[in-house]
User: Which sequence fits this backbone?
């Protein structure tokens, strides 16, 4: 690929990262739970003074190390995941800062926040996939684990998300004696975002692919 193609692809990817982070913030601020991968960082941010974005970076660096162990090598693409993940965490904290919370408010407006978040997050993921340059560490680790075990990526992803959600639930119950950060919105997000990604890709993949080629 030419340098201009790389620039276009990474611009699209970073735009997707911003959208994904904004979507996660909307989902979290809805007060109905957060996305499965963000569950542990969010619950930990409620327990400590460390931000959700910082915990997101820490967890993703852990996934990056695990990916490197599984693959038994560390590539330039993996190294690029470090600044991208820092940027992702920064975008989450920034979006969380300007989006007002709906926690404790009427369920209807909270659900609207949740829907907005799912739509924005799925668009961001679609951009990241279409850009086809690098992956965020969590998804890259799932891909490496799927290759190592021979299981289908989608099945490994479900198991990965479920494990993180269960750990977030256990931590919330221990610390708050209730499911703070893990609610019906977490389940809705898990069920809906993947389907929305498929719809977005049907609409925008061809024109975007042509634009960044």
Assistant:
């Amino acid at each position: 690929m030419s340098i201009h193609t790389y620039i276009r692809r990474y611009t699209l990817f970073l735009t997707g990262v911003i959208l994904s982070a904004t979507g996660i913030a909307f989902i979290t601020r809805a007060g109905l739970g957060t996305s499965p991968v963000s569950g542990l960082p969010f619950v930990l941010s409620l327990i400590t003074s460390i931000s959700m974005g910082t915990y997101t970076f820490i967890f993703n660096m852990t996934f990056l190390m695990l990916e490197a162990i599984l693959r038994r090598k560390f590539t330039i693409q993996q190294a690029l995941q470090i600044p991208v993940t820092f940027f992702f965490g920064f975008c989450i904290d920034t979006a969380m800062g300007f989006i007002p919370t709906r926690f404790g408010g009427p369920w209807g407006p909270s659900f609207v926040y949740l829907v907005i978040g799912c739509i924005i997050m799925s668009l961001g993921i679609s951009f990241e996939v279409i850009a086809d340059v690098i992956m965020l560490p969590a998804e890259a680790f799932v891909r490496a684990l799927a290759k190592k075990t021979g299981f289908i990526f989608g099945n490994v992803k479900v198991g990965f998300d479920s494990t993180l959600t269960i750990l977030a639930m256990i931590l919330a119950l221990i610390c708050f004696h209730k499911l703070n950060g893990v609610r019906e919105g977490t389940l809705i997000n898990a069920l809906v975002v993947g389907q929305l990604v498929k719809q977005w890709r049907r609409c925008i993949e061809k024109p975007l692919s042509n634009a960044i080629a």
